[in-house]
Give the backbone structure.
Amino acid sequence: MKRPAANISEGLQETLQTYDQHLDSLIPILQGVQKKFGYISEDAVECIAQYLDVSQSYIYGVATFYTQFRFTRPGDHVIRVCLGTACYVRGGSQIMDEIDRYLGISPGETTSDFKFSLERVACFGSCALSPVIVVDDKVYGRMTPRKVKKILEEFE
């Protein structure tokens, strides 16, 4: 489900106008675009390139260097599963497997209806609550496969 280019361009114009037309503004612009749209589309890269008078490949080169930037639309709800040592030892991989089965997606993927995205994370710093998942910005600790199903059903 791709958003129409016209809508993106309108919103981009508003976003771009809040930044100076300097190359130093590239990262803040990318952050602003991603915050507004959830990701950086091809149309956005094209508009940013025109605004800053640089090539699209330059923008991709900078943006792909940083893991914070996404180029595909995320789900409405992003599920992050901790697979750091404490979470892994206490069943984090089983939690990931259960989510994978329930949603039918693997880490790094988004459901076809754009309802959920699944990501693996090295550590949330919540080891005392392991295993941990975070849905959007809410932390769920001491997870079990059964608890995962109940949490995901709440978002259905």
Observations:
- The first strand starts at residue 77 and ends at 82.
- Residues 5-16 form the longest helix (12 residues).
